[in-house]
Amino acid sequence: MVMDKLGNSLQDALKKLVKSGRIDERTVNEVVKDIQRALLQSDVNVKLVMQMSQRIKERALKEEVPSGMNPREHVLRIVYQELINIIGKSTDIPLKPQTIMMIGLQGSGKTTTTSKLARYFQRKGLKPAVVCADTFRPGAYQQLKILCTRLNVAFYGEEDNPDAVGIVKRGLEELHKYDVLIVDTAGRHSLETDLIVEMEEIHAIAKPDYKLLVLDGAIGQQASEQARAFNDSIGISGVVISKLDGTAKGGGALSAVSETNSSIAFIGVGETPDDLERFEPDRFISRLLGMGDIKSLIEKAEEALGEEDLDMEAMLRGRFTLKDMYKQLESLNKMGPMKQIMQMLPLGGLGAKIPEDAYQVTGDKLGRYRVLMDSMTEEEMLNPRVIGSARIKRISRGAGCAPEDVRELLKYHKMMQTAMKGFRGGKFNMQKMMKKMGM
Ligand SMILES: Nc1nc2c(ncn2[C@@H]2O[C@H](COP(=O)(O)OP(=O)(O)O)[C@@H](O)[C@H]2O)c(=O)[nH]1
Ligand SMILES: [Mg+2]
User: Of the residues 102, 105, 110, 112, which should be mutated to test ligand 1's pocket, given the most ligand atoms within 8 Å of the CB?
Assistant: First the structure.
């Protein structure tokens, strides 16, 4: 969907490498030229494209092709890593009380994103409230009020009062009991001085924890300039790219992110309040380059480089996160009855120590675990120990489950973690093992 076109032309470019048995300068130059064309067509900034292609060229020629990879995979992996380099990690917006200020040009999608964010926090078990500080666009008050009413989200605005700064001051006072306060600001048709001044005044009053710049996914080369102006004025903590459900390629936004050293927090994929997705760099690039390719490629690369083993070792040392657990449950679940699988594992005497109910992770339970984990922050999934009773309450509320369900999940995780620690000594590679078993 997103950036399909770019994906296709990159694929074409990389196909050229399939047949060539080794990497020579001429082939690399040819491929890099195709990659440049593809990125430029997707509105990625020229300077950025040039820098990136230089690095790809250098690395493709200098670095040895890892054993087990062909030249095409080698280059694709480098392209992938260089894209990850630009895109960076996704901005982590914590699930805690905070103030968020929305900024961006008129029509970029601020108001829509405001309601989407309110919905997002609501689903995570927090109480959001919204302040309408757009006193410029006719109908802005009504637009936001209707959206909030539909979602049952608290709203503050003063219709027909042009004093945006005063509205923000009063609104935040009135709504101070809510967890997440989202301030929707006015846009303009271009970056006019009065917009910047108003934005700075609102910023001084609201003292937001996060300033999210909303960029239309279809925006081209102006994206960098816009992002820089907003960044110079009040600073940007993260970017939301809207309208990625359409034909937009998002390359402009990509350039904006690189320009301001910020990162992408969310992407908008439609007009309804539920059409907001957390930004996942891997998925974004996978879409860009073609999912199947990237997935098998990265797996192959990790295997060749032994990184998978390293990760596994970290897990054996006890760093077994909820995310790791979920991944394993998911793959195990696909493989068939849990008990049979567990008995096939080289667990030594450990198999006997695993309680019977550990085998009973059915699809239903997995589904519930997924919903619960969807209500958690990154921190909580990586380090479940931080989850105390207040967080248990928040997580269960967000997931529409009982606190007991959260506790059960945590208990299950602990049990698995203990089991993992039992695999000490000798390398144990889950993937290799699954392959051996014909998975
Ligand atoms: N298809 C689609 N339309 C969107 C998305 N985000 C916003 N829009 C539409 O873009 C237009 C402008 O959005 P709005 O939130 O009013 O922009 P604002 O001026 O920055 O507040 C509206 O018609 C929205 O419905 C999105 O992710 N996908
Ligand atoms: Mg608006």
Answer: 112
Residue 344 CA from chain centroid, whole number: 36
CB–CB of 288/83 below 8 Å? yes
Q: Which of the two residues, 30 and 234, has the higher pLDDT score?
A: 234
| Position with higher pLDDT, 324 vs 180 | 180
CA of 110 to the centre of ligand 1 (A): 7
Pick the ligand that lies closest to the CA of residue 103. Answer: 1
Quote the CATH superfamily of domain 306-436: Signal recognition particle, SRP54 subunit, M-domain (1.10.260.30)
Q: Which fold has domain 4-89+288-292?
A: Four Helix Bundle (Hemerythrin (Met), subunit A) (1.20.120)
User: Is the pTM value of this prediction over 0.85?
Assistant: no
Instruction: Decide the pairing of beta strands 210-216 and 180-185.
Output: unpaired
State the angle between helix axes of 71-87 and 4-19 in degrees (0 to 180), rounded to the nearest 10.
150
What confidence tens digit (pLDDT) does each residue in 216-264 have? 988 877 888 888 889 998 999 999 999 988 766 677 888 888 888 888 9
Per residue in 98-134, pLDDT (tens digit) is 999 999 988 999 999 999 999 999 999 999 999 999 9
**Spatial distance between the Cα atoms of 71 and 394, rounded to a whole number of angstroms:** 49
Residues with CB under 6 Å of ligand 1 are 104, 106-112, 187, 214, 242-243, 245-246, 268-271, 275
Q: Residue 280: is its pLDDT beyond 70?
A: yes
Round to whole Å and give the CA distance between 253 and 22. 35
Q: Which two tokens stand for residue 201?
A: 């005044």
First CA to last CA distance, the chain: 29
Measured CA to CA, the distance from residue 413 to residue 322 in angstroms comes to 7
Domain boundaries, the chain: 4-89+288-292, 98-279, 306-436
> Which residue owns the Cα nearest ligand 1 atom 17?
109
CATH architecture type of domain 98-279? 3-Layer(aba) Sandwich (3.40)
Angstrom distance (rounded) from CA 125 to CA 390: 11
pLDDT of residue 433: 47
**Percent of the chain beyond pLDDT 70?**
72
Instruction: State the amino acid at position 65 in one-letter form.
Output: V
